[in-house]
Amino acid sequence: MSRRSGVLEFAVLGLLRESPMHGYELRKRLNTSLGVFRAFSYGTLYPCLKALVANGWLMEEPGGPPEGAPATALTGRRAKIVYRLTAAGKEHFEELLSHSGPDAWEDEHFGVRFAFFGQTSRDVRMRVLEGRRSRLEERLEKMRTSLARSRERLDDYTLELQRHGMESVEREVRWLNGLIESERTGRDRHPPGTAERDKQDQSGDTDGLPRHRGGSRPDPSDDTTT
């Protein structure tokens, strides 16, 4: 499975865990809530949905037309299909939520993972945030080294563009520092022996952090018938 299809699978399962949806509604949510998917099409979404159905993680049900769908999206049988998460799909999504390795820190994955932090345990949130910060600090150091070496050879506009890129990374690092501190403060509010409560985070408790339904980071980067 490619990195791109893996993050799409994760996002689809996460959104359908909230409620069943038509393909039209699901694509709209992916476009509006998770910015990394703004440019993707039905040709990308529906193979993913079919694969999830084949794996037993989703089920298809007949349903009425999605609210607000254009007339062109309502013709044909597939426009009436509702996708619902199965028990196996929920279990698979929770397993994916527990992953906190390097893939979760990368540009494309991190925004989507962050969008579902309300369903993620605090320990995993901390590992993802700290991993993301570490990755950006490494990137920032490389950018500074590169700029120092090439400064004399760059014109003013190229130099300003590189500075802008560095400032964007620096802002995200500061943002991550604040989130990590908030997570630690939230943890410190609980007495020892309450680690089991972390499991309740998956039902929506964010320990004081704002709910974030937009998948994009501070400085990251309609449907037809099926």
TrEMBL record:
Coiled-coil regions listed in the entry: 126-160
InterPro entries listed in its UniProt record: Metal_resp_DNA-bind_regulator, Tscrpt_reg_PadR_N, WH-like_DNA-bd_sf, WH_DNA-bd_sf
Superkingdom classification of source: Bacteria
Entry-linked Pfam families: PadR
Positions of the UniProt region annotated as Disordered: 181-226
Compositional bias per record (Basic and acidic residues), positions renumbered to this chain: 181-202
Keywords tagged on the record: Coiled coil
Gene3D superfamilies: Winged helix-like DNA-binding domain superfamily/Winged helix DNA-binding domain
Residue ranges occupied by any Transcription regulator PadR N-terminal domain in the UniProt entry: 12-95
Protein's name in the database: PadR family transcriptional regulator
